[in-house]
Write a structure and sequence with these properties.
The chain is 0% helix and 51% strand. The chain has no helices and 11 strands. It starts with a strand and ends with a strand.
């Protein structure tokens, strides 16, 4: 069965960095675009970043452009989200996504 398992969240001060990972299994990972979403309290889930099959094309929400980088390792069936210069408004649960499948989410809290 399909599994998406996120890790790497935590508490970080403003201006800090975190790297999220999503380990995928149960499908041919290298054949599909992968996405990261986030959902802040009392807000709708929003698309943060996407990456195509071999990583030759990426896209980002305007709010994270220049600060976040999505990447993937098709040998490890893992997609990453490097988050730099974090802001309090980045606080959210971050989810890995493939099609209709979602991970359990990992909490990112940016606070001093």
């Amino acid at each position: 069965q399909v599994q998406l398992v996120e890790s790497g969240g935590g508490l970080v001060q403003p201006g800090g960095s975190l790297r999220l990972s999503c380990a995928a299994s149960g499908f041919t990972f290298s054949s599909y675009t992968m996405s990261w979403y986030r959902q802040a309290p009392d807000k709708e889930r929003e698309l943060v970043a996407q990456i195509t099959t071999v990583g030759d094309s990426t896209s980002y929400a305007d709010s994270v452009k220049g600060r976040f980088t999505i990447s993937r390792d098709n040998y490890k069936n893992t997609v990453y989200l490097q988050m730099n210069t974090l802001k309090p408004e980045d606080t959210a649960v971050y989810y890995c996504n493939w099609g209709t499948y979602w991970g359990q989410g990992t909490q990112v809290t940016v606070s001093s």
